[in-house]
Amino acid sequence: MERITADIIADKEFTIEARGYNRDEVDGFLDLICEELDRLNNEIQDLRQKTTIVRPTAPETENNGISKEDEGKFREILEMAATVKEETIRKAREDAEAIRLKAETEASERLNGLAEEREGLEKEVAALKETAVEYRRQFEELLHAQQEALEKATGLF
Predict the structure, then answer these.
(1) d(CA 154, CA 40)
(2) In 3D, which of 26, 40, 34 has the Cα closest to residue 9?
(3) Cβ atoms 74, 54 nearer than 8 A
(4) What pTM, to 2 d.p., does this model score?
(5) Which pLDDT belongs to residue 129?
(6) CB 73 within 8 A of CB 50
């Protein structure tokens, strides 16, 4: 599987759907992820460089210049760094999931509101059509009555 890098995230293209997510919000969030990924990679690189100084390259001798106490401290620092890394990744995933769920909820609520609004408008259109049919019927009756009155009136003269 390909490793995710900030460049891959920055260059990722998504298809645009009619009712998709807000593009600016997604781009902004991906930019934050890229920045955090770059920061973490730099931190990991720095820690790796520091560990090469601490880690002996040859088999351990009796005195390699580092006391057992310092070696213990370095190991503790490395363990803390690994814990911080894991915690940061977990937190970023939780935050991303929370944002995704919030966006889905907001989109669903908006769609429900639009569906209700559409139903209301469809009812109004149906009522207007019924009213137009009734007005037409009444107008035709009025015209017919006027025509009959004219025909009777012409018979008088």
Answers:
(1) 100
(2) 34
(3) yes
(4) 0.38
(5) 96
(6) no
